[in-house]
Amino acid sequence: MSIARIIASVVLLPSLVACGSPGKYIETGGTDSIVSVGEVDIQDLQVAASGMLESLIAQGTLKSAPHQPAQLRIERVVNDTSSAFDVGELTYRMREQLVNSGQATVLTAYGADAESPEAQERLRQQAFLEGRTSVDTLEPDFFLTGKITQLKRSAGNTKQTTYTFRLTLTNANTGQEAWTKVVDVTKQGTRNAVGY
Questions:
Q1: Residue-number span of the structural domain to which 67 is assigned
Q2: What is this structure's pTM?
Q3: 49 in helix, strand or coil?
Q4: Could you tell me which residue, 27 or 124, shows the higher pLDDT?
Q5: How far apart (Å, rounded) are the C-alpha atoms in residues 139 and 155?
Q6: 3-state SS class at 52
Q7: Among residues 144, 140, 139, 141, which one has the least CA distance to residue 180?
Q8: CATH number assigned to the domain comprising residue 85
Q9: How far apart are the C-alpha atoms of 139 and 55, rounded to whole Å?
């Protein structure tokens, strides 16, 4: 390779590298967000949380709880998909609005998993040893559980994934299902893209 070609390559290389799009801020979950056909994206979590929350508030179950605001314990929500994401991203979006609206409180204690029954039992024991009688304040009115699954299909080069978000609210006193909701999010395409 001649010296002139080497120099031209060295000069051209920075301009090729600079052709990529620069980083920028976008609206979280907005129309400029990346859509991943085979992964759960932030906009999927926003859609699911919004649909769940709207249904739960509209039904009015929380207003019938013995404690007001209703006392809620968030139990296990299973991510049974091939997409690695924290299910807390779903439940925290709902929890934020429920707590801040005064419809519910979420029972927490302390430690690595402040919402675990073990952590809350330690608080009850401590209250008992100190002679305090307000132990029942840690008794939940409802348990929130759930599961997230996926169904993948393809036709030729087109891939389609449906993520199903399921949540159930169980009455802690009766063990009966008090509310349940399913939200499906389906994505289709031949590759990941920006915008939808």
A1: 33-194
A2: 0.76
A3: helix
A4: 27
A5: 51
A6: helix
A7: 144
A8: 3.40.50
A9: 24
**Beta strand 158-171 pairing with 193-194:** unpaired
**Residue 107: per-residue pLDDT:** 81
Q: What residues form DSSP beta bridges with 151?
A: 162
Residue 14 lies in a domain: no
Element (H, E) at 6: helix 3-17
DSSP class of residue 41 equals: -
Question: Which residue carries 């036709």 as its tokens?
Answer: 155
SS3 content of the chain, % helix, strand, coil (to 5): 35, 30, 35
Give the sign of the dihedral formed by CA 13, CA 14, CA 15, CA 16: positive
How many whole angstroms separate alpha carbon 64 and alpha carbon 80?
32
- Which of 113, 112, 114, 121 is closest to 139 using CA atoms? 121
Average pLDDT, the chain: 83
Dihedral, 84, 78, 164, 108 alpha carbons, nearest 10: -100
The pair of structure tokens assigned to 156 is 């030729």
State the Rg of the chain over Cα: 24
Placement of tokens 């169904």 in the chain: 151
The domain tally of the chain equals 1
| Torsion sign, CA atoms 111, 85, 166, 65 | positive
Per DSSP (E only), the strands in 58-176 are 70-80, 104-106, 142-155, 158-171
Scanning the structure block, which residue is given the tokens 């008992």? 128
Task: Specify if 8 maps to a domain.
Answer: no
Tokens standing for residue 187: 């994505």
> Which has the closest alpha carbon to 113: 73, 153, 141?
73
